[in-house]
């Protein structure tokens, strides 16, 4: 019985409040509505180092809408989001990238995955063809070498793009 209570308490911690199914035979609690607005999180106050310094930021209407959407996405107020993001950039924990760099990196990553899949497919094809002895080892080596060079070129391009972003 103690093990069962422990398992239920661990489950309640993992699943959160309102998810305890109750004793066997009891009707389970209703599921929380997922689309309910979540309260804005607040930074825990640190009494040993109060934040006495203030910075006043000004935004035009479109900039403020962007800030507000980003803050809402992280469930923060615009001020808390601006403070957290600014400090992360200043500490070097976050490196902002222009949208075109992110798009290039995404494209390169997708291309690299595609080339890896091609290599995997070639290995499977080669294994099937080698069982009938219709493909020579030299032909297979040439195809795999081309795939390997393509992956290396994609890796080099990805690294170069990442270095440009810094």
Radius of gyration: 27 Å
Name the overall outline: elongated
Distance between the termini: 57 Å
Order of helices and strands: HHHHH
Helicity level: 55-70%
Number of strands: 0
What count of helical segments does DSSP give? 5
Region (Disordered): 17-51
Pfam families: MobC
InterPro entries: MobC (IPR008687)
Domain Bacterial mobilisation: 116-155
Structure description:
62% of the residues lie in helices and 0% in strands. Among the domains are: 61-90; 99-165. The chain is mainly α and 166 residues long. The chain is built from five helices and no strands. Mean pLDDT is 73; it is low at 1-29. The longest helix has 34 residues, at 99-132. Helix 2 crosses helix 3 and helix 4 (99-132) runs antiparallel to helix 5.
Keywords:
mainly alpha, 0% strand
Give the topology.
Elements: H1 2-15, H2 61-73, H3 78-90, H4 99-132, H5 137-165
Short description:
With 166 residues, the protein is mainly α. 62% of the residues lie in helices and 0% in strands.
């Amino acid at each position: 019985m103690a093990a069962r209570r422990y398992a239920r308490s661990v489950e309640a911690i993992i699943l959160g409040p309102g998810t305890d199914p109750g004793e066997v035979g009891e009707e389970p609690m209703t599921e929380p509505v997922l689309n309910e607005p979540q309260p804005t999180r607040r930074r825990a106050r640190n009494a040993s180092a109060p934040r006495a310094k203030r910075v006043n930021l000004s935004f035009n209407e479109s900039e403020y809408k962007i800030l507000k959407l980003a803050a809402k996405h992280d469930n923060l107020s615009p001020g808390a989001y601006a403070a957290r993001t600014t400090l992360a950039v200043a500490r070097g924990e976050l490196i902002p990238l222009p949208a075109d760099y992110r798009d290039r990196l995404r494209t390169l990553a997708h291309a690299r995955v595609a080339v890896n899949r091609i290599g995997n497919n070639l290995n499977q094809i080669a294994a099937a063809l080698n069982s009938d002895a219709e493909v020579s080892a030299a032909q297979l080596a040439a195809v795999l070498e081309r795939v390997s060079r393509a992956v290396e070129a994609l890796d080099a391009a990805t690294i170069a793009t990442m270095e440009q972003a810094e």
